[in-house]
Design brief:
The complex is a heterodimer of chains A (about 400) and B (about 300). Chain A is built from 13 helices and no strands. By secondary structure, chain A is mainly alpha-helical. Classes of the chains: A mainly alpha (about 400), B alpha+beta (about 300). At the A-B interface, helix 1, helix 2, helix 4, helix 5 and helix 6 of A face helix 3, helix 4, strand 6, helix 8 and helix 9 of B.
Chain lengths: ~400, ~300
């Protein structure tokens, strides 16, 4: 089967899109409230609980779930499995959007949003967060460069800007042409760089909590936390591709691409296996299994994460019958994605317990609305992009 | 996505040399504490809970007056924490000690930034807005701060507070150790100047630490035989001695390892001179060159990683 991505000629305004608009509007209201009344006005954050839903989900989980971008690029372009090229574009789009929204989420969360550029000039190389920020910043630009050829492919030679902008036609045309030519020669650098930067900050996100040994529950606090974050990012990359490709192909009624997704899940057995081995090994080595039956909500959250997010989907994927079934791989992939989401929430929110102040945290409605609004906007732009840019595989059906 | 063999080897030569040449010998982590910092000893057996230190702190640091400044009774019914409007607060604890009439005896404990020798907040701060200066004070520079609040996550004493109600220019707020007063000869922190019972003793950390041990030695029955802050998270500028266990007055049990040690060791052994990213770049480059060579016989796929 030849790889040919193309814009989908489908209706854009569907009821689903309108639902997204509602969430986007609600999120906007909440963001306006945050920038008029302060972070304390819309969140339940406190001096004891400085990080909540926005860091745990919008930032940490967003980065983890965008791992499909670098894992598929590594597979298809670096390790030469060109068979998987059709999935690299949707995975890249997810990564581009994922990281863009990580930065948008950060802009809402940090107190002085207008000062977000300061780490470029004020360096603290002891700070794990400094390294994460630098990597994310460079990687976001790398992702945009990797995405540039897709835009060039669609518009090169046919730039027709409307009305007043039409004098710019030849300029835009030139940028597309030259940019595409330069990137055609140098893309290999950015592909490798993207993987390197991803390995760096995916692991360092785990190192963030190492500075607070007395605050993170021992079930999660381990010196190998960065390694667990890295291996779980490796493990969640392909399941995330399976998850979203299945959703997209169902929603747009496209070819289900089982011939590509099914073998991907076979690689996942190996990658998720490494993560599971490390996670279980760490628990037994440090003896933290003693907490498992204490019945606290933290322990229960850990058990759900490990059981439903790692062990059950791993066992499921061992069966060829599951790997050959669309419903089977979707279920397993959804569990793995859910497991990594819960892991990041556990490390940054559930497992974080400041010992001194009496404090419980549950996200305020305002926080939840911002997060949902950002996710809805991301899905909206994803849908917009695949409708008008060559990202997904051409439908096998005859388009109208 | 074209990688000719020539450009590839040119690049790999550079990467390889820099990776092997710069790979650092794993440096052991070293404390960055200043050589002769100031310290302050809090003797909880002397504190009577008058809360004058709160008042002095507010005046010196131009903060709003303390909550009900003259109240020495009902104010203690709730446990208070330092916040963005109060850098120090005094709490009352009943730990089961009784006086001669079997009435419960209170213990009062002042709490403020401990000014750690190797502060987690300083290590964590993304822009270096927090720094440990030569007086021992942990200093906050609002002009660098971006408001990420990682310092608050990192602090083992839960001290830094945030101006959550300021939408655009919120600050991290905490005890300054009155550094612009103590850096002058004979200067004292606001709270120390006013304490009527000499529960607070300011001086060089070494000196007040010796004084603390002297008091423990001379009154073995009176004190718990430990100076809190001597070894906790590698040592703090503020030191406490007490007749009741420290965890009963909300001073947390902490390891002796400085909080930043693990993450800094990890970061520097992995990333100094970026040796590991450069090496990884090289390894992946080799794989890519190989797979591209194999692909040369097939039609090229273009762009769009």
């Amino acid at each position: 089967m030849k790889h040919k991505a193309s814009p989908l000629n489908k209706k854009f305004w569907t009821p689903g899109v309108l639902v997204m608009l509602v969430f986007m509007a609600a999120g906007t209201v909440s963001i306006v409230a945050r920038f008029t009344g302060g972070i304390g006005y819309v969140t339940n954050l406190s001096n004891a609980r400085p990080w909540g839903l926005w860091v745990g989900v919008d930032v940490a989980t967003g980065v983890a779930l965008a791992a499909g971008g670098f894992t598929t690029a590594a597979l298809a372009h670096i390790f030469g499995r060109h068979y998987y090229e059709p999935i690299t574009r949707p995975a890249l789009l997810t990564a581009v959007l994922g990281y863009t929204f990580v930065v948008l989420g950060l802009l809402v969360d940090i107190g002085r949003s207008w000062a977000i550029w300061k780490p470029i000039f004020y360096w603290n190389t002891n700070s794990v967060l400094f390294e994460v920020a630098m990597c994310v910043m460079v990687y976001l630009n790398v992702l945009y460069l990797e995405f540039f050829p897709i835009i060039a492919e669609q518009f090169k030679g046919k730039v027709r800007l409307p009305g007043l902008l039409s004098p710019l036609n030849s300029l835009v045309e030139g940028i597309l042409k030259i940019g595409d030519a330069i990137l055609g020669k140098t893309m290999w650098i950015f592909i490798i760089l993207g993987v390197v930067l991803s390995c760096m900050h995916q692991s360092s996100l785990g190192s963030l909590m190492l500075v607070a040994p007395t605050k993170l529950h021992p079930l999660w606090y381990t010196p190998i936390l960065p390694l667990l974050f890295l291996t779980s990012a490796f493990a969640v990359g392909y399941p995330m591709v399976v998850f979203e490709t299945t959703l997209a192909t169902t929603s747009f009624k496209l070819d289900d691409e089982m011939n590509i997704l099914s073998p991907l899940t076979k690689i996942t057995i190996f990658l998720l296996g490494i993560y599971m081995f490390l996670k279980l090994g760490d628990m037994f080595y440090r003896g933290t299994y003693v907490y498992l039956l204490d019945g606290t909500h933290q322990t229960n959250s850990f058990i759900i994460e490990l059981l439903f997010g790692v062990m059950i989907p791993w066992v499921m994927l061992l069966f060829e019958k599951v790997r050959k079934s669309r419903r089977g791989i979707f279920t397993a992939a959804a569990l793995i994605v859910g497991g990594v989401v819960l892991n990041r929430i556990n490390v940054f929110i559930v497992g974080y317990k400041p010992p001194l102040a009496e404090n419980t945290y549950f996200p305020a409605p305002g926080e939840i609305l911002v997060t949902l609004g950002l996710i809805a906007t991301l899905m909206f732009i994803y849908r917009f992009a695949v409708t008008f840019l060559p990202v997904l595989q051409e439908s096998k059906e005859v388009s109208l | 996505m074209k990688l000719t063999r020539r450009t590839f080897f040119k690049f790999m030569g550079v990467a390889g040399v820099s990776a092997t040449g710069l790979a650092p010998a794993a440096h052991a982590w070293e404390s960055k504490a200043p050589p002769d910092p100031y310290g302050c000893l809090v003797d909880l057996t002397r504190c009577v809970g008058c809360r004058k230190c709160e008042e002095a702190c507010s005046t010196v640091n131009k903060l709003p007056a303390p909550e009900r400044p003259n109240c020495q009774c009902t104010i203690f019914e709730k446990k208070r924490r330092p916040d963005d409007k109060a850098f120090t607060v005094v709490n009352r604890y009943f730990t089961g000690r009784l006086d001669e009439f079997d009435k419960p005896l209170p213990t009062f404990a002042k709490v403020q930034c401990m000014h750690c020798q190797d502060p987690a907040c300083v290590s964590a701060c993304i822009v270096g807005a927090l720094s440990k200066d030569e007086t021992g004070a942990v200093h906050y520079d609002v002009n660098k701060c971006i408001g990420c609040r990682y310092c608050m996550v990192a602090c083992p004493f839960e001290i830094p507070a945030y101006e959550y109600r300021d939408p655009i220019t919120p600050r991290v707020r905490k005890c300054t150790f009155c550094y612009d007063r103590i850096k002058k000869d004979g200067g004292l922190p606001g709270c120390v100047t006013i304490c009527p019972t000499e529960a607070l003793t300011f001086g060089r950390r070494e000196t007040v630490l010796t004084l603390a041990h002297k008091r423990l030695k001379e009154n073995p029955g009176k004190y718990i035989q430990q100076v809190y802050g001597e070894k906790e998270v590698g040592g703090t500028s503020w030191l406490y001695i007490s007749s009741v266990p420290f965890d009963q007055v909300n001073l947390p049990v902490l390891p002796e390892t400085p909080s930043p040690k693990l993450s800094e060791t990890l970061q520097h052994s992995l990333f100094s001179y970026l040796w590991s990213p450069i090496a990884l770049f090289g390894v992946l480059g080799v794989f890519m060159a190989k797979s591209n060579k194999a692909k040369d016989n097939h039609p090229q796929h273009k762009g769009g990683a």
